[in-house]
Amino acid sequence: MSGIGLYFHVPFCRRKCSYCNFYSAPATPEQMAAYTEAVCRNLRYYTSNTVVADTLYFGGGTPSLLAPEQLEQILACAAACFSIPPDAEITLEANPATLTPENLRRLRAAGVNRLSLGVQSLSDAQLRRLGRMHTAQEALDTVEAAAGAGFRNISCDVMLALPKQTPAELSETLEQMAQLPIQHISAYLLKIESGTPFARQHAEQECPDEDTAADLYLQTVRTLEQAGFRQYEISNFAKTGYESRHNCKYWRCVPYLGIGPSAHSCWEGKRFFVPSDTADFLAQPVQQAVLEDAQPCTPEEQIMLGMRLTEGIPAHWLAEKQTEVERFCRLGFLRRTDDRISMTPEGFLVSNTILAELLG
Question: For domain 299-358, which architecture applies?
């Protein structure tokens, strides 16, 4: 991983989903045009033609609300400001309800080569509870249309431990998803965040308890492994060679630059973020950078991030904690392979407790 990552936070959504606490708001066409110009303005500020950026990631929000020509403009500006190799991974997060076959063809022609689709469930009842704008069939049709438009690297999100979710319902979603022409699946346990509609509705009262949620997670790991999607991170599964190159930079402490309101960066030896204020981002000649950490990627942080990956970390990083490591191995929470230590799926479920002891 020689290159850095570029992340663009697109703060626009048609409407807020019931579970979402990411920064986003509705936008006018004029705001999206102004956002495109602001992103390019910031790219020119950070410009460094000697720096290779081999992953670009549009997150949000709903980045697929941007017009293909706006994405093309941002990508052209990025190519003028950084050295972007021909095989760069260029990811766009997308809501299935915002995509048409024609739109998908235009996105692929603009240079996007990886789609991350917010499917979340293939149960129409669950999609309605989540506040999603698409149906299960529309999600399936979007995936097929994306493959037909030339996308060969497609990821789908799925949520676990939803209100009233049963093992059978989850199994049906996973089995249908595994049959699609996709290469990657992100599977997240639902967390009820304060300030969201779910929190106001006390949705946690209808969610599976912790033990059941753990069972749903382990069911997901088993089902996806059997379908050829290897777990490579706590919540991420991929067919061989289709791991998210961009997200792996976060977990391996590779530098990345974030542009846009609420975007985070680990750049030039500092960790900083942009305030969650779209109006301010559009008005400023250069985005505000609020310092979070003047000395990031300490050994402790590298252990915490590295243990999110199934490849784990070099065993010598925990040389002084061998007693604890051996105990967690006996309990089935850690595994030692050659000279590396990693979490098991069961370990991922209690990773915070394990890390607190290993780093204590």
Answer: Orthogonal Bundle (1.10)
